[in-house]
Write a structure and sequence with these properties.
The chain has about 180 residues and is α+β, with helices and mostly antiparallel strands. About 35% of the residues lie in helices and about 15% in strands. The termini are far apart.
Length: about 180
């Protein structure tokens, strides 16, 4: 699929086809695309916890997601928890932050990688939903995410059962300043 078409057609999907499953190979392909994103000093701190078993997906939904996100991700074929290693991206080797953002660069880098992941999913004919409302403590415990990492989001992946329209977008004049 042409890149412009990929970015224009991607939507947040809140209803998935229960009859179509996502494979581990497909998830691996998305993670490989995510790994190609730029990072601070090539630090590559993004980490992905890929939930693909039905049993574990049900447990994540029931124990770690609020009801609306559990419902929005029902029938998705995978749930991918995204995290980054703390105190590396945006930091000097001495451990001091390179600027006022500190671990904000880890979040920034993870966002770049996650964008690659969701655009790759779109190219592959899969829909995604990035969820930021989740129980961090329960997710870290259940998925064994170490304290050296910061959990950021959970991404549902599956075959869309709906085809949502593009929501209204701001104009170029609303978002850009040319000097």
């Amino acid at each position: 699929m042409e890149f412009q078409k990929v970015i224009e057609s991607r939507r947040s999907i809140r209803k998935y086809d229960p009859n179509q499953k996502v494979t581990r190979t497909q998830v691996e392909e998305m993670i490989k695309a995510a790994m190609l994103a730029p990072t601070w000093k090539n630090s590559q701190t993004a980490r992905y916890y890929c939930v693909i078993s039905e049993e574990m997906m049900n447990q994540v939904r029931s124990e770690c997601l609020p009801a609306f996100n559990a419902n929005n991700s029902a029938d998705a074929g995978a749930l991918i928890a995204t995290a980054f290693v703390k105190d590396i991206s945006g930091y000097e080797r001495t451990g001091e932050p390179s600027n006022e953002l500190g671990n904000g660069w880890g979040i920034y880098d993870l966002g770049l990688a996650n964008e690659n992941l969701i655009l790759k999913a779109e190219e592959m004919g899969l829909g995604t939903l990035v969820m930021g409302i989740r129980d961090e403590k329960k997710l870290c415990e259940l998925l064994q995410i170490p304290e050296s990492e910061t959990l950021v989001s959970v991404i549902a992946v599956g075959y869309a059962a709906v085809n949502p329209k593009m929501p209204a977008r701001k104009t170029l004049e609303d978002v850009a300043v040319f000097l």
